[in-house]
Amino acid sequence: MAFRIHNTADYLLIEDVSDQNITYYLKSELSVAGVEGNVVLYKNGNELLALGPADIDLPSENALYDLVTTIHGYLYSDSTSQGDLREVQKQITTAEVLALNGTPISIITGIPGSEIQIIAGSVHLKYAGATYATNTDMVFKSSSAGAADYQGKYSIAGTTDRIGNIELITTTRNIVTGDDLVATVLSGNPVTGNSDVVVSILYRVTDLP
Q1: Domain CATH number, residue 176
Q2: Domain check: are 119 and 68 in the same one?
């Protein structure tokens, strides 16, 4: 069983992938909550659908909180808003950090026909005793954009457990339609460090004019 939940200006589209059914629901009639580990959608106060996080392919978040928050954002977005605002949290392991130049990590899966813009973000360096050295600027960019064509960056060269904001780049950057948003580092891989990194991003899904 797999479901995809899509946001449109006035309707929430629920796609039952297994049975190949698609149903539109007027967003003004819906509400969402997390109940006993499930994402529960209500229509006019009556339970419409209850799904475990593992049953939901889209939004791509895995945690109950992130799914409920994202779907709640869908219900209160409309055609006058500047794109569809969403949140995501991703943990990048030490092994993945040490290979980040050669193997970028997808933070947000690409959406055909749409572009992903970072609105704000933070990084939690879960310091474990060894400091990352060389190539320590973690950057966030469209997966097919040029190496230095990134939207934001954060230094992971800390020596303590810490959380800081992603520095957004204000000059022109190439945001590619349909691309993933990925985390990587430039020039080469970091070395010596042993800390996991948790990335939290508020982003906009939009078609830029």
Answers
A1: 2.60.120
A2: no
Cα–Cα–Cα angle for 87, 88, 90, rounded to 5 degrees: 160
Q: Which domain holds residue 61?
A: 3-75
Would you write out the chain's pLDDT as a tens digit for each of its 209 residues?
688 888 877 888 898 888 888 899 998 899 999 999 999 999 999 999 999 999 998 887 778 988 898 888 888 765 444 456 788 889 999 999 999 999 999 999 888 788 999 988 999 999 999 999 999 999 999 999 998 899 999 999 999 999 999 999 988 889 999 899 999 999 999 999 999 999 999 888 887 55
Strands 56-58 and 3-7: parallel
Whether residues 49 and 22 share a domain: the answer is yes
Co-location of 68 and 112 in the same domain: no
Q: For the chain, how many structural domains are there in total?
A: 2
CB-based burial of residue 70 (10 Å sphere; 0-12 exposed, 13-18 middle, 19+ buried)?
Answer: buried
Secondary structure string (H, E, C) spanning 109-170: CCCCCCEEEEEEEEEEEECCCCCCECCCEEEEEECCCCCCCCCEEEECCCCCCEEEECEECC
Q: How are beta strands 167-168 and 46-51 bridged, if at all?
A: unpaired
